[in-house]
Amino acid sequence: xxxxxxxxxxxxxxxxxxxxxxxxxxxxxxxxxxxxxxxxxxxxxxxxxxxxxxxxxxxxxxxxxxxxxxxxxxxxxxxxxxxxxxxxxxxxxxxxxxxxxxxxxxxxxxxxxxxxxxxxxxxxxxxxxxxxxxxxxxxxxxxxxxxxxxxxxxxxxxxxxxxxxxxxxxxxxxxxxxxxxxxxxxxxxxxxxxxxxxxxxxxxxxxxxxxxxxxxxxxxxxxxxxxxxxxxxxxxxxxxxxxxxxxxxxxxxxxxxxxxxxxxxxxxxxxxxxxxxxxxx
Length: 281
Hints:
Blueprint: E1 2-4, E2 10-12, E3 23-28, E4 31-36, H1 46-61, E5 67-72, E6 77-79, H2 84-89, H3 92-111, E7 115-120, E8 123-125, H4 127-133, E9 137-141, E10 146-148, H5 162-169, H6 172-181, E11 185-186, H7 187-193, E12 198-200, H8 204-216, H9 225-238, H10 243-258, H11 261-272
Parallel strand pairs: 4-5, 5-7, 6-8, 7-9, 8-10, 9-12
Antiparallel strand pairs: 1-2, 3-4, 10-11
Helix pairs in contact: 1-3, 5-6, 9-10
């Protein structure tokens, strides 16, 4: 992969997201696809999170990318969370900084003004669910696995955002119940509670095609992807501040959209009763 240095020279470096890497990255039809790749359960380490961080930045900065989709390699696991063997080898101080970096990576994903979809193509437990909860939309494959935050069975808490994000999805008492009981549950239960958005049926290939079809509807020319991204940004940022500050964020983002090409296209199409072909600009 070539990067440009401060003086304009090209520097060649190894691609941290190439085939066989811990987080494989590719772009297809406006979708940036991030695939967690650490068989057999796609457990993550500090190295995987560094690769994920790099992939998120690549997708954020690429003007040809409109939606990010995260999935697990294979058909059995989205992710089973942190690599327990790794955690047993490292010092408590390393574990602290590991969790801090995971928090920062999740926050970067959450704050990127592009829609992020988690394709839950297998078991999604522990830190795997914590990754998924940092995404905007979660779509599971029917009967592909279980989901939950069972960290209490290890004598720890869900420490890379689980206690905070689950409490923002569910009523506080329900979030506490699920985490202190530590059980894993079906995708159907998760759908009923609002933890996931959809369950798609079919074999792995059919499921994946449905996910991509869903994601592509948010890409130009179908939707104004800049507006989609800023709706996401307004909700994510506004939810963390007081109401009037949230309204201020909303106004500033709306002003950006008023100046966009897609807003002009959309308003003109509405008045002429035609369909807009959005550009993402």
